[in-house]
Amino acid sequence: xxxxxxxxxxxxxxxxxxxxxxxxxxxxxxxxxxxxxxxxxxxxxxxxxxxxxxxxxxxxxxxxxxxxxxxxxxxxxxxxxxxxxxxxxxxxxxxxxxxxxxxxxxxxxxxxxxxxxxxxxxxxxxxxxxxxxxxxxxxxxxxxxxxxxxxxxxxxxxxxxxxxxxxxxxxxxxxxxxxxxxxxxxxxxxxxxxxxxxxxxxxxxxxxxxxxxxxxxxxx
Length: 220
Description:
Layout: H1 2-18, E1 23-24, E2 27-28, H2 39-53, E3 59-63, H3 64-70, H4 75-82, E4 92-93, H5 99-106, H6 116-120, H7 122-129, E5 132-134, E6 142-144, H8 157-162, H9 165-183, H10 187-219
Antiparallel strand pairs: 1-2, 3-4, 5-6
């Protein structure tokens, strides 16, 4: 019974999180299954984020060094190729765009996206990024089926125009996969520890039961 209880504690929150219908705006979410153990995918997603998203959207609850180490990127390589504002490798991933400048230039201050995959779910992000469409009535000439009349431009439009749909979907998958990782960088470690805990409980219960049987024999 104890094993069942501990298993429920570990896995029930995840089940509740995924249970039930979840929609992306007025449309159904596209199918997305993250794989944060795929380092190559995370590295590609990081590169896309830093080159196309990071100018406006900070990751202020993450550190460059932690991301580099988790994604198995040499620190010097990361610092020379993915840090553009002179920040140090140990610093938080803040952007140089100020709130006043953002409001003056963009009309609003772009939100930090560190926890976006936890706030909205990865499949929402994946669907959102795949559903921009031309709309001449909007300031940037695009709209989004998931988030109607959003003020964010389609920053990946050039990539989309130069790739096949399959190749573009892979770019979006990698980017969403990276955002899933950065929202909870310890998730894989927790899962591994949870597996070890369950194995320990199973083995411990077996030994405890065998010990109980031996004591019970002596009591007869």
